[in-house]
Design goal:
Peptidase_S1_PA_chymotrypsin; mainly beta; 1 helix; Peptidase_S1_PA; Thrombin, subunit H; 4-stranded antiparallel β-sheet
């Protein structure tokens, strides 16, 4: 969610700013069971260009104007026990140390987990450099970019704490932008379960 200049709340979707392609419509193509194409594709809206690639951080904000309904959960339909992972809050632990277990959900590689390998790096690509908050050894694909990065709070109830978004990767190295940086720079706020 985000507060507009008039004081109203609007629903927004956070993704990678690297997905920005001028004034085009963006769509949600939910993944279904492996090997079965999704039944529907949903229009989300247009990306705020003012927030894309802001101040060396990779994130983009999509204003939701289509038929997408937000839910504070992460899709995990490959699990017979927990087809949705509940998002309870953003990461509230100030001591993020190397070796913690983080997971991500991506369109191509689905939900998988790895360990944090490094904090705060600078990544250079063909366009420009941007700041990386966490480097994780995690399987990823370019179609996963913009997906949520999270940590399980409990496995028994499949609840999670939201850390940020996957902004890229090289092989099995995933690059993440911290949700706190996105909140600070963009004015969005996370809506979790029960909020």
């Amino acid at each position: 969610m985000r507060q507009t200049a008039t004081g109203e709340l609007e629903s927004v979707f956070v993704t990678s700013g690297r997905c920005y392609r001028y004034e085009i419509d963006y769509y949600l193509k939910p993944w279904g069971p492996l090997g079965i194409p999704p039944p529907n594709i949903y229009r989300i809206g247009i990306m705020d260009t003012s927030n894309a690639r802001n101040r060396g951080y990779d994130y983009g904000i999509l204003r939701i104007g289509g038929e997408v309904v937000l839910a504070p959960s992460i899709k995990n339909i490959d699990s017979p026990y927990h087809p949705e992972i509940q998002i309870w809050n953003r990461n509230l632990n100030p001591n993020i140390h190397l070796g913690i277990h983080l997971c991500k959900s991506g369109y191509h590689t689905r939900v998988n987990c790895g360990y944090q390998r490094s904090n705060d790096a600078l990544f250079f690509d063909q366009i420009d450099p941007y700041k990386i908050s966490y480097i994780i050894n995690i399987d990823n694909n370019r179609q996963d970019v913009g997906g949520p990065v999270f940590q399980f709070l409990t496995l028994s109830t499949a609840s999670s704490s939201y850390f940020g978004i996957l902004t890229g990767g090289i092989g099995n190295i995933g690059l993440t932008t911290r949700i706190d940086d996105i909140i600070r720079l963009s004015g969005v706020f996370l809506v979790g379960v029960g909020q």
